Amino acid sequence: MSHLAVELLESAVDQQGQLPLFKPPPRPPAEGGARFKFIDLFAGIGGFRLGLEAAGGECVYSCEWDRWAQVTYRAWFGENPVGDIREVKAESIPDHDVLAAGFPCQPFSIAGVSKKKSLGREHGFRDRAQGTLFFEIIRIIEAKRPPAIILENVKNLLSHDRGRTWEVIRGALEDLDYKVFPSVIDAASWVPQHRERIFVVGFDRRVFGDNPPYEAPTPPREAPPTLASILDPNPDPRYTLSKHLWKYLQDYAKKHRDLGHGFGFGLADLNGVTRTLSARYYKDGSEILIPQAGRNPRRLTPREAARLMGFPDKLEIAVSDTQAYKQFGNAVVPLVVAAVARRIVPVLAWQVARSGNGCLLKRPPSVAS
Predict the structure, then answer these.
(1) What whole-number distance in Å separates Cα of residue 349 and Cα of residue 192?
(2) Any catalytic annotation for residue 105?
């Protein structure tokens, strides 16, 4: 397997001697060591892929419908993902050990739900355009029965619709005989951004029994990185807010403060971490503004947004600023994925040793707990 992902993560450790941000995971073992194959559904720009490859995985299939995300994915990985998952025949997907999917979160996110309510639209599973796409994952799991799955979504997934949405998701996975381990992880221990996401790891009970030895990752012991560590020393002036926009944001924030609301811009602490980067960042950058001495604050540059998500500088930004902000705001943090994956790999290896087959893809149809 190629060590592309590990090399890319390593390349970001000390770009220009001033970005001590990314601690790469250990290199996968040499030939003969643990290996696993995975598929990358709702792939976006490949955050899952980078993290899983860094943990020793090999991607054998990818699927992403957004054409601009496909441009980035192709630039980074040299392949064009398959398009609409609803048109994918499960039998066309290669066998794999791990199914990874960051399925659309807007129907479940706080911002997404608020927007849909204001427009009089349905949300959650009643959103026919996106909410039901989760069941496309279920369709593929049922057909391919991967030994392990890893899904990612917004933290609000747990509380949406008074918990009913999560019960549907968990129930669907358990009905397929998967042991489910949900955990909410804040990426702030790996990157300088509060980004709480739920990671749902599942193991096929028919393979691993009722008690697979999985535990969610814990934050690294090192002090978390600061925002200052990823900022360019001389950003292009065009990212500085205009006088008009800066006044508008201040007036907007004051209006909502007076109404007792919490809406407003976020002036970031350079020695701390930022708010969550969202896909709407391209509009005005209001949630993460960088203070500047003697000038109006500025937006993050697209490259800084990439670093905020943990994507190394070696990966080119192949799309417009607008599309880049959308893509990074929708992405998953690769270093968090790698941390989760490194907890999955020992369980896979445990079962390989337990079964005596040497390969999970030749697994027995049933294993006692």
Answers:
(1) 33
(2) yes
Give CA–CA dist 52/4, Å, rounded.
11
Give the separation between CA 255 and CA 261, rounded to whole angstroms.
9
- What is the model's pTM? 0.83
Phi, psi for residue 4 in degrees, rounded to 5: -55, -50
Report all structural domains of the chain as residue ranges with CATH numbers, in order of start. Answer: 4-221+329-362 (3.40.50.150), 227-314 (3.90.120.30)
pLDDT at 350: 81
**Which residue pairs, CB below 8 angstroms and at least 24 apart, start in 280-288?**
280/111, 280/329, 281/305, 281/325, 281/326, 281/328, 281/329, 282/321, 282/322, 282/325, 282/326, 284/241, 284/245, 284/249, 285/241, 286/249
CA distance linking residue 92 with residue 309, whole number of Å: 32
Q: How many CA atoms lie within 13 A of 219 on its CB side?
A: 14
Give 100-144 pLDDT, tens digit per residue. 999 876 555 444 434 444 435 443 444 443 447 888 999 999 999
The CA distance from 311 to 8, in Å, is 8
Backbone region of residue 268 per phi and psi (left: phi > 0; alpha: psi in -120 to 50; beta: other values): beta
How far apart CA 81 and CA 95 sit, in angstroms, is: 17
68 burial type by CB count under 10 A (0-12 exposed, 13-18 middle, 19+ buried): middle
Q: Which of 59, 63, 105, 359 is catalytic?
A: 105
SS3 192: coil
Lowest mean pLDDT among 47-51, 80-84, 219-223: 219-223
User: What do you get for the CA distance between the two ends of the chain, in Å?
Assistant: 32
Which carries the bigger pLDDT value, residue 263 or residue 49? 49
The answer to whether the beta carbons of residues 25 and 6 sit under 8 Å apart is yes
Q: Are 300 and 329 in contact (CB under 8 A)?
A: no
Residues 227 and 274: beta-carbon distance below 8 Å: yes
User: What 3-state class would DSSP assign to 248?
Assistant: helix
The pLDDT tens digits for 249-274 are: 998 888 878 777 766 788 999 999 99
